[in-house]
Q: What sequence folds into this?
C-alpha cells in the first residue's frame, strides 16, 4: 500500500530538503540576541518614561526629616499618581516633576501604610498614563524594567528579570504584605513608588524596597494588588478592612482526618479563641476549630489569611454546619466579610471536633 502513496510524498520531501526549509531553525548569534534585548528594554523605557514622575516632599511630620523624595507614575489622564505610602506619608508639601520638567503641587488623595501604597493628584489633564498588566500571569525569568529617580537622578532605567513570585514582607506599619515580586533590576533609594514594567510597557509592580547590604534583592508590590488598592484610595481615600475577631495558630491536621475529608493539604489554622460577639463567633466558629480553606482556596498558615480580605465584597454568609454521619468529625462551611465597613467578617471551611 505504501507504493500507492510514493509519488505523493517523495516530491514533498525533495521540495523541502533545501537550505530554505522552514523546519530548519537557525540559531541567533549573541550579537543578535543582545541587540533584540536592547531594543526591547529601550522601547519599553521610551514608552513608559513620559508617565513616570519625580516626587519631592517637604516638612515631613515623621522622622524629623525636612525633605525626602521618591518616584511615582500616572495612572489616569486627569492627574492621579500612584506611589509608595512611605514616600508621602506625613508630608505637608508634595511637589511632582513630570517628564517634560513641568512642576506641580500635589494633593494627597489616599494613603494606605499597610500596603505601602498612596495616591496623589496634580492639577493637570490629558496626561500620559500607564496601564496595569495581570500580575497573576507573571513568570519567573520574565524581563522586568524599573524606572525611577534614585538619589534624585531622574528617569533612571534599570533592567533585570523577575527573580521570584509570591514573596511576603512587612510594611512599615507591621502588617504582612503578600504577593510581593522579587526582582534583580537594580533599585536604590529614590526608586520607591516607581513602576516595574514588562517588555510591553505595562506595569507589573510598584517598586517598594531593597535590601541594601545585598546585591540584586529588590521587591515590588504586585500590579493586581496595586490596582485594587489604588481604586479604593481614589474612591474613599483609605482602605477600610474587615476583621475576623479570632486568635489562631498554625496547626497540622491528623492524617486520618486528611484522608477522611479528602483534604488537599494537612495544614490549617487552629482557632485558639474568638472575640465575644465578634464576627467569627457569630459565624459559628469556635475554639478548637481548624480553618482549612476560604472560598475554595486552601488556608495553610496564619499569614495566608491576608488572602481572605481580598474577597470582602463578594461573600455571602452561611453559618449552618453540615454534619457528617461517619465519625465524630464534621465540616462546617461559611463565609463572611460583606461589603467594606461591615461589622461582619470572613468565614471559611473548617474541621470541627465534636
A:
Amino acid at each position: 500500500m505504501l507504493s500507492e502513496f510514493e509519488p505523493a510524498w517523495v516530491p514533498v520531501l525533495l521540495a523541502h530538503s533545501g537550505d530554505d526549509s522552514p523546519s530548519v531553525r537557525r540559531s541567533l548569534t549573541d550579537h543578535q540576541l543582545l541587540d533584540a534585548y536592547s531594543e526591547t528594554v529601550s522601547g519599553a523605557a521610551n514608552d513608559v518614561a513620559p508617565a513616570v514622575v519625580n516626587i519631592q516632599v517637604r516638612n515631613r511630620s515623621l522622622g524629623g526629616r525636612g525633605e525626602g523624595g521618591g518616584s511615582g507614575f500616572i495612572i489616569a489622564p486627569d492627574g492621579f499618581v500612584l506611589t509608595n505610602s512611605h514616600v508621602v506619608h506625613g508630608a505637608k508639601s508634595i511637589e511632582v516633576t513630570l517628564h517634560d520638567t513641568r512642576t506641580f503641587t500635589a494633593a494627597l488623595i489616599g494613603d494606605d501604610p499597610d500596603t505601602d501604597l498612596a495616591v496623589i493628584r496634580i492639577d493637570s489633564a490629558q496626561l500620559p498614563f500607564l496601564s496595569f498588566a495581570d500580575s497573576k500571569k507573571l513568570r519567573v525569568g520574565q524581563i522586568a524594567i524599573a524606572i525611577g529617580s534614585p538619589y534624585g537622578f531622574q528617569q533612571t532605567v534599570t533592567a533585570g528579570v523577575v527573580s521570584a513570585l509570591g514573596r511576603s514582607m512587612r510594611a512599615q506599619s507591621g502588617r504582612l504584605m503578600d504577593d510581593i515580586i522579587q526582582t534583580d533590576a537594580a533599585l536604590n533609594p529614590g526608586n520607591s513608588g516607581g513602576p516595574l514594567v514588562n517588555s510591553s510597557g505595562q506595569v507589573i509592580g510598584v517598586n517598594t524596597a531593597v535590601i541594601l547590604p545585598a546585591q540584586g534583592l529588590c521587591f515590588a508590590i504586585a500590579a493586581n494588588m496595586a490596582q485594587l488598592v489604588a481604586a479604593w484610595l481614589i474612591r474613599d481615600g483609605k482602605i477600610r478592612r474587615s476583621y475576623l475577631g479570632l486568635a489562631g495558630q498554625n496547626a497540622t491536621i491528623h492524617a486520618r482526618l486528611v484522608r477522611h475529608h479528602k483534604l488537599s493539604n494537612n495544614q490549617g489554622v487552629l482557632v485558639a479563641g474568638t472575640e465575644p460577639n465578634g464576627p467569627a463567633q457569630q459565624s459559628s466558629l469556635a475554639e478548637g476549630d481548624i480553618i482549612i480553606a476560604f472560598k475554595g482556596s486552601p488556608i495553610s498558615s496564619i499569614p495566608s489569611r491576608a488572602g481572605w480580605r481580598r474577597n470582602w465584597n463578594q461573600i455571602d454568609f452561611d453559618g449552618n454546619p453540615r454534619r457528617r454521619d461517619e465519625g465524630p468529625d464534621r465540616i462546617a462551611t461559611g463565609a463572611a466579610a460583606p461589603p467594606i465597613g461591615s461589622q461582619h467578617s470572613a468565614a471559611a471551611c473548617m474541621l470541627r471536633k465534636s
Notes: The longest strand covers residues 156-170.
